[in-house]
Amino acid sequence: MALSDISWWIWVILFLLIVAIRDVFVQKKHTISHNFPIVGHLRFLLESIGPEMRQYFVANNREELPFNRIERGWIYASAKKENNYEGFGTDRDIYANQHVFVNNAMLPYKPKENHPNLIDKTFLPCAKIMGAYNNRRRPFRPASVINVSAMSFGSLSAKAMESLNKGVKIAGAYHNTGEGGLSPYHSNGGDIIFQIGTGYFGIRDDDGNFSMDKLVALVEANPFVKAIEIKLSQGAKPGKGGVLPAAKITEEISKIRHVPLGRDVISPPNHSAFKDIPGLIEFIEKIAQLTGLPVGVKAAIGKIEQWEELADLMIATGKGPDFITIDGGEGGTGAAPPSFADHVSLPWVYGFSDLYKVFLKRKLTERIVFIGSGRLGFPAKAAMAFSMGADCINVAREAMLSIGCIQAQVCHTNRCPSGVATQNKWLQNGIDPTLKSERLAQYFKTFSKEFIEVTHAAGYEHPCQFTMRDININVDDKNLTSKLHKTYKYEKSPVAFTSMQDLKDCPHLGGKTLQS
Ligand SMILES: Cc1cc2nc3c(=O)[nH]c(=O)nc-3n(C[C@H](O)[C@H](O)[C@H](O)COP(=O)(O)O)c2cc1C
């Protein structure tokens, strides 16, 4: 009998028999396959497609984390300038614990004739100037209170980076480089905040130490770099360094980061350029002096003693950071162990309120631009953050969603299906940076417009005027809601704000393309 005479079902049975023999007698790794040959494989298959099945068919609208379907849908629709409204009223349990309410005024704020927001409904610059108090040579007023948070080229693809950078240029926002150095994809004209991590990527000598000469040269060569951020920690993995595996170091990444090809690159948990809080202040001042730029720090908050030391030293020396970025424990990352991502550092509201009080008590809040990040990329959340003392919002994953991320949560595998968080050329080739930059810009514009509308509904011209008494939060069943000043036990200090027109006329306003 020829092989072709054997019918197909005999081939199937033969195949299954081979699989069964392999499961029982050959493989030793999987007990389930051994104990339940053939059918045991179904478990692995179902487990691998489980997240997608739950996301598309099972999870309800408000169930998923980090971003539920309604939140993702709002970002997608806003980015595409589609209808982002809800019909039939809210589907949220507005009596739930931690639910946030904005107290609306009886009569909303009404912009007068020729008000900047009648000309541009999305114009929403920062009410404070970075570096004003410390008299930096090149102070910077961010032209948008909504900005792109730190994410490095390496964790995100070149196409994603280019889309974000071109997008912030259109929206007049700034783009934080993340700790992976400044790449050509960050250099499409949007305002840049250059981040310095413990690996000093792009500004390191051959031994991995910080090189001031390289930083100064970088700033001089790239006038769109408007501020420097020293990263102390991030919410998803505070106190944990990182490894960039040799396999992910392409020739391009090796050049940008100034790291050797073919070797793992370690970014340690600690900085080697300074050792303590006085050293940090000295480092900040030196960078500010030599570059002329405002210099800030980014951190996730846990213990508060060293922040108190910093604040005391700021009073004693009259020096210190021009801005502080406070990241929540709910913050995202390209990769982090769950023990860190889930447990180390406080969620944003607790961390921010603890930190702000340190500076408030010492009357230092006017010196500092406070930036918040940690799932704050929605107008009502932003209103809450501003009422607590934030002056700007940084968004990372929300920005990724706006350019096509589908929350597959595989950033750490290099297999991101949307091409946003991978170095795989095939996967990222599906991204059209021209289209995606429009999407990012449109998300920012819609966000700003809705944020301005919420602000007006509360009776204010600019969100910096929100106070702790403008927002209520459900705390528990007995005391159903409590104003923020009671929940977090402080009053935000007023921001010196005159008018939106004055912000528009400010010589230090970034995002100049917006003004033309
Ligand atoms: C893919 C990815 C890469 C990141 N890389 C950095 C980084 O290089 N430096 C940093 O300070 N934070 C980094 N973060 C944290 C974000 O900047 C941000 O603080 C955090 O995700 C919270 O913002 P979100 O809730 O809007 O995502 C990264 C986040 C993501 C998702």
Q: Tell me the major beta sheet.
A: 8 strands, parallel
Small ligands present:
flavin mononucleotide
Low-confidence stretches: none
Helical percent range?
Answer: 25-40%
Strand order of the largest sheet: 2-11-10-9-8-5-4-3
> Which class do the helix and strand fractions yield?
alpha/beta
How many extended strands?
Answer: 13
Q: Approximately what portion of the residues adopt beta-strand conformation?
A: 5-15%
Rounded average pLDDT:
93
Q: What is the rounded distance between the termini?
A: 83 Å
Radius of gyration: 25 Å
Shape field: globular
Counting DSSP H or I runs of 4 or more residues, the number of helices is 18
Domain Glutamate synthase: 142-460
Protein name: FMN-binding glutamate synthase family protein
Transmembrane segments: 6-25
Keywords: Membrane, Transmembrane, Transmembrane helix
Task: Explain what the structure shows.
The structure is a single chain. The protein has 516 residues and is of the alpha/beta class. Helix content is 37%, strand content 11%. It has helices at 8-26, 31-35, 40-58, 69-79, 116-119, 158-171, 212-221, 251-257, 277-291, 305-317, 338-343, 348-361, 379-388, 397-402, 425-428, 433-457, 484-488, 500-505, and strands spanning 100-102, 146-148, 174-176, 191-196, 225-231, 242-244, 265-267, 295-300, 323-327, 369-373, 392-395, 471-474, 481-483. Strand 10 (369-373), helix 13 (379-388) and strand 11 (392-395) form a beta-alpha-beta unit. Helix 6 (158-171) crosses helix 16. The N and C termini lie far apart (83 Å). The mean pLDDT is 93. The site of flavin mononucleotide has 28 residues, from helix 14. Belongs to the glutamate synthase family. This is FMN-binding glutamate synthase family protein. InterPro entries: Aldolase_TIM (IPR013785), GltB (IPR024188), Glu_synthdom (IPR002932).
